[in-house]
Amino acid sequence: MNRTLLPKPPHWVLEEKFISLLQSCKVSKHLYQIQSQILTNGLEQDQYITPRFVAACARLKEMCIARRVFDEIPEPQTALWNSMIKGYAQNGLYENVILLFTQMTSMDFSLLNCFTFPIVLKSCLKCNALREGEEVHCVVIKSGFRGNHFVGNTLIEMYSGWRMMEAAYRVFCEMVDRNVVAWTSMIKGFILCHDLVRARELFELSPERDIVLWNTMVSGYIEIGDMVEARKLFDQMPKRDVMSWNTILHGYAINGDVEACERLFEEMPERNVFSWNGLIGGYARNERFLEVLDAFKSMLIEGNVPPNDATLVTVLSACARLGALDLGKWVHLYAENNGYKGNIYVGNALIDMYAKCGMIENALEVFNSMDKKDLISWNTMIGGLAMHGHGADALNLFCRMKNAGMNPDGITFIGILCACTHMGLVEDGISYFQSMVDDFSIEPQIEHYGCMVDLLARAGLLAQALDFVKQMPMEADAVIWAALLGACRVYKNVEIAELALEQLIKLEPKNPANFVMLANIYGDLGRWKDLARLKVAMRDTGYRKIPGCSLIEVNDGVVEFYSLDERRPETKEIYGALRGLTKLLRSYGYVPDLQELGQGT
DNA sequence: CTAGGGTTAG
Predict the structure, then answer these.
(1) Which CATH number is A538's domain given?
(2) Residue nearest to nucleotide B4 (CA to C1')
(3) Can you give the pTM of this predicted structure?
(4) Considering the domain boundaries, does residue A178 fall inside one?
(5) CB of A191 within 8 A of CB of A199?
(6) Fewer CB atoms inside 10 Å of the end CB: C or N, chain A?
(7) Residue A493 and residue A581 share a domain
(8) How many angstroms separate the CA of A277 from the C1' of B6?
(9) What is the pLDDT of residues A194-225, one digit of tens each?
(10) CA A555 from centroid of its chain's CA atoms
(11) CB of A175 within 7 Å of some strand B atom
(12) Where are the bilayer-spanning segments (predicted)?
């Protein structure tokens, strides 16, 4: 067929073609191809295509391309301005939103419409631009948009976000006809300030109460931990949707009532992925990791609600805590086969799971395969390496992190200091600690002081460690004294040990592990009289040390295993495996201290 | 093209 005989398609056909092309555009490369097609057709200033082009750029995080196109247009119309502003907001470039808005107002006031303000006001809140937010509010008034529901509501939201309740309430009162959304935002504002009394007053006054408003009020009580009032309200609701049920379920989960959580989950008329995540998250938050795995398995067996990234992350964190490597690997495969390969949350949870299960190689593989990494990815990997004796690799990775332009935070330095401790690099640890304060302006937290005490103490510098404790700007906690006490045993320092125990008894009088530690030191040194005295003191407290418990993956499950435990049918195999491990360790020169076996049980 | 409600990682 001769193409030249075909008539030129009408304008609107081309428009539709480009719009659908832009909507389905998945990679930046195609963006350039579409752009050149638009140019060859002379449509670069088309009032329908260009905003869509900008929207596609925003979706693919290519706002620079959008900006170049935008700058070429002599007199952009409102829709194009708005699409640029929205694109910047979507990509977190709030400063650009404000800049563009300023430019827009300085050019022509009539460019602004009711779609412009909500995005700009939200951006002001997000980047904490208080003065600019107030200026935009002035523009709202001058341009006559204060009567718009969307604009008014976003103003309430903005001021509430800054806890400027007088300003928020003034906007609310000045609204000529408030709808239920405005009431909800106002109530949400008081909830943010934990002012449940005023929130409830408004709730009672509201002329209309829809499900969203009821749910908001219920979650307000949940946030302040008042499950009784939350439940009372939930029971009074004229109508409930899945989200109402999920809200109260999550409330029990975060307030530590696992049993109520389970009961509610059973009662629910309908369950979606948030319901399952609520139950699974409830188990996880309350350290019931075995139940996390069981619930996850039930979810898969029931099969009508597929897990999402949040589910996988929670399950992986439980695997990490339990050492359930097989299930962790299974989740890894599941994630890759179900579109979570590039998911940063899942990637980070996988790194942590592999690291905690001792599979550093797998953790590194996941880390290296991630093309998007955030601070948590780096911190998890550095911490994982440090925790498992790869201190040098952890420090190297820290260098790579800085070279990649990623700014470390306090958690990063926990990993770094831990790496130094494990390698006995006292000098380096001290200089990293200094660098944290001087180069990165990170204020050391009690955990960092704890790391430093550990660093010094494990290196045998007990007196220096004690000095450090005394110089700390805050009171040392039990973790720090226990670290010091532990090191005292290794270096057989009774004086500091007794001092540390004295503090520990004040901080946690019910923890017999502390007495056991000092008893061990007396035993090591043959101070039997002191030992006897301590045993009497221990008996007087009436507390017994809880036996240490290990979790071991057996076939497709995880079992609890205590020291000298003979309850399990697998006992023989477990002790067999232990003997094998001990033998292996001996061949590397390790001498097990058999006296420790069964201590305190 | 614009407004109010849920989960997840170190």
Answers:
(1) 1.25.40
(2) A181
(3) 0.84
(4) no
(5) yes
(6) N
(7) no
(8) 10
(9) 999 999 999 999 999 999 999 999 999 999 99
(10) 31
(11) no
(12) none
Joined tokens for residue A504: 């520990």
In this structure, the dihedral spanned by the alpha carbons of residues A47, A50, A56 and A59, taken in order and rounded to 10 degrees, is -80
Q: Is there a contact between A70 and A100 (Cβ–Cβ < 8 Å)?
A: no
A 124-163, residues with C-beta < 7 Å of strand B:
148-151, 153-154, 157
**A509 and A590 in a common domain:** no
Residue A580 corresponds to which tokens in the numbers above? 């094998």
Residue A9 scores a pLDDT above 80: no
The residue-averaged pLDDT of A164-173 equals: 96
Please determine, for residue A256, whether its predicted confidence score (pLDDT) is greater than 60: yes
Does A454 reside within a domain?
A: yes
- DSSP β-ladder status, A549-554 and A557-562: antiparallel
Contact (Cβ atoms closer than 8 angstroms) between residue A212 and residue A184: yes
DSSP string, A553-570: EETTEEEEEETT---STT
Nearest nt to the A150 alpha carbon by C1': B3
Rounded to 10 degrees, what is the CA torsion of A399, A401, A405, A410?
A: -100
Quickly give A145 CA vs B2 C1' distance in Å.
12
Nucleotides of B under 7 A from a protein CB: 1-10
Q: Output A32 or A363, whichever has higher pLDDT.
A: A363
Map tokens 């301005």 to a residue: A81
pLDDT in tens, A223-255: 999 999 999 999 999 999 999 999 999 999 999
Q: Is residue A529 part of a domain?
A: yes
| In a shared domain, residues A464 and A540 | yes
Distance between the alpha carbon (CA) of A350 and the C1' atom of B10, Å = 12
The radius of gyration of chain A from alpha carbons, rounded to an integer in Å, stands at 31
A305 CB-to-strand B distance under 7 Å: no
Say yes or no: A510 and A560 in one domain.
Answer: no
User: A517, A498 in Cβ contact below 8 A?
Assistant: no
* A497 plus A555 within the same structural domain: no
Report if CB A380 to strand B is under 7 Å. Answer: yes
Which chain A residues in 384-413 sit with Cβ < 7 A of strand B? 409, 411-412
Same-domain status, A536 and A454: yes
Q: Is the CB of A478 under 7 A from strand B?
A: no
Name the closest nucleotide to A278, judged by C1' and CA. B7
Nucleotide nearest to A384 (CA to C1'): B10
A114: CB within 7 A of chain B nucleic strand: yes
**Structural domain of residue A529, as residue ranges?**
449-545
B3 C1' to A248 CA distance, Å: 25
Q: How many domains does chain A fold into? A: 2
Domain assignment present for residue A585? The answer is yes
* Same-domain pairing of A523 and A586: no
